[in-house]
Amino acid sequence: MPSLSVPPPKCLQKPLVVPHHHMFGPGPSNVPPRILEAGANPVIGHMHPEIFEIMSDIKSGIQYMFQTQNKMTLAVSGTGHTAMECAIFNTVEPGDSVLAAVNGIWGERAAEMAERIGAKVNTIVAPPGGYLTNTDIEKALSKHRPALFFLAHGESSTGVLHPLDGIGQLCHKYNCLFLVDSVASIGGTPLYMDQQEIDILYTGSQKVLNAPPGTAPISFSERACQKVFNRRTKPVSFFLDLNWLANYWGCDDKPTRVYHHTGPVTAFYSLRESLAVLAEEGLENSWERHETVAEYFHAGLESMGLKLFVKEKVRKPTLTRLPTVTTIVAPYGYDWKEIMSYIMKTHNLEISGGLGPSVGLVLRVGLMGCNSSKANVDMVLAALRDALKHCHRSKV
Amino acid sequence: MPSLSVPPPKCLQKPLVVPHHHMFGPGPSNVPPRILEAGANPVIGHMHPEIFEIMSDIKSGIQYMFQTQNKMTLAVSGTGHTAMECAIFNTVEPGDSVLAAVNGIWGERAAEMAERIGAKVNTIVAPPGGYLTNTDIEKALSKHRPALFFLAHGESSTGVLHPLDGIGQLCHKYNCLFLVDSVASIGGTPLYMDQQEIDILYTGSQKVLNAPPGTAPISFSERACQKVFNRRTKPVSFFLDLNWLANYWGCDDKPTRVYHHTGPVTAFYSLRESLAVLAEEGLENSWERHETVAEYFHAGLESMGLKLFVKEKVRKPTLTRLPTVTTIVAPYGYDWKEIMSYIMKTHNLEISGGLGPSVGLVLRVGLMGCNSSKANVDMVLAALRDALKHCHRSKV
């Protein structure tokens, strides 16, 4: 036996130290002790009857959160990006036409994913902070005749809550599947998968749900399943193949489950707990709370002289500011990075800069799930006020 | 606002109940409290300096476990199957020739993954429980001239520990990358990535490491990186694209890290802790312990009249029985499913049946990481003895 050429690393002799921060960026959000503790339960097998029961509870919780009766509802063993690939890999075949609404980073990423697997991709672009009208969308659907239309409901890079009403119906008029990314929005603002005729909907565990990142709820309509299960080619990923996932999650009609992959069982525990918390509060109460807190926050920002990046503020039901992630125009004359660091250092509070098209233009504050409270708003406003007082300001 | 059509599910009103089992199947294995507790630390951002330090510690821990100096060493945000796809997606382009050694389920799955992305796949097959000689392998390399050769080091479906010596050198003689699956073996038996000239090596967190499933260590040699970073086409997966992962893990030379995906931070905590445990014990001690316990277990099984599925038992260094997962020939005249259920019900102890080519032929017992002890062997032997006394035996 040869001797070891790599010695045990010294850095691992130090104990793990994890600080507590107020996680008020666009995600992950804070995880309450109840959910963290759920995840610290003992590991059981990924094919035990007990885990199948937990997965079945998760499925019911997702159906509630998504407001869907879809049998094909499950959680992908990965983060939001895995769900995004799961949606695209299963519904798109090489040569299919895909249309992506781009009004921030998520549309760009969906377009890139579809391109990588050989789809013909077209985009319709809204300016950062803006959104598309149903007329824009119908024009593009009629021109490109896509098999799939992607739209981010909560565009966390720009702070836009995209209106959804009527788009599913338009897609179906043009024989197109409607794929919606609700990672940053769901649970914090109304969404009705079935009534809004959304064909594929996914989210992540680490936003409004307040679970650790690592699982991603997803659901497929009957119409989406028709396409998925009548493909000519196999999806590029075995791991994300819905035929296998459906069986593992008991969503098909087969009498037994076949080993596919080792599900992240402890992440399933915390996901189940986070869905239980949401069910206890009730979706409508959660929506109402996020909206009330967001209005309080936005009013507070404006009374400090700060500007919101998403200009239009129409009354319900066409609210276009995300109640979960707020984009604030980067205060004139300041270095936004300095503000972020100052607030983290002085107030132990994470807020974030822009992402993709909003880099340099905005500060982003996420108040999601348990973090959405007036007390937290007061904390953020005080931190911002303090930062504007103490950070460097150019004399321009 | 329409009203809710799906009410809060009643099943989520019941508290989460997770039983404790002795996890002596082929994985996941039991997670000691120290590692579970690490995973229950507060969530911090996936781009915080603190998480980058934890990721850097993980990288060092993997380099130690793998015995490699590879800069391109990281953990994929997913289970072993994700790492398998990460390895194949990044190193294989459509039309590339891939050779997979099939002596159980893992080779079949690697072949399927490569086929899905358009590779020309050939296999060399060893009978279940057997293994391939270097002469077999060289013949196949010379015939098929693959760009990548896949081999499972620990074939957990059959219980074979495949010899590795000399294969890396053969691959390189034929200008082929050597990809090794060490999910079930690493940490429990000697493996030297650099000295054995392995180009891509991966494992999972839930076996010898005793962390919850959900992260998968992986490493790429300089030679593998040459191929990955000089591809003509983009890998099919954005999420698993090594260009992005390398940057997120600080393995490239870029000064800043760009947001790719939200890493499962709490799973990183427990992975780090599990690597610290391994470094504390020391690799050589861990190998020695697994081997001693396996020999004690195998002797105990044979003294009960049970037979081991892997026939050949040659002395080191060509040991071909996995010390981590033992395959026992299904006892003649019994229903293997009844034995499994009896042992779970009566002794609260998970053992498993066969998988893929070994279904119906074997019982599988995994004793990995903290589970590898003589006390646990005694527990398993007593349970088996009891099961053989009480389960139904046909009169044939």
From TrEMBL, chains A, B:
Its EC number is 2.6.1.44, 2.6.1.51. SUPFAM superfamilies: PLP-dependent transferases. Residues 43-378 form the Aminotransferase class V domain. One of its GO terms (biological process) is glycine biosynthetic process, by transamination of glyoxylate. Substrate binds at residue 364. Keywords: Aminotransferase, Pyridoxal phosphate, Transferase. This is Alanine--glyoxylate aminotransferase. Homodimer. It holds the Pfam family Aminotran_5.
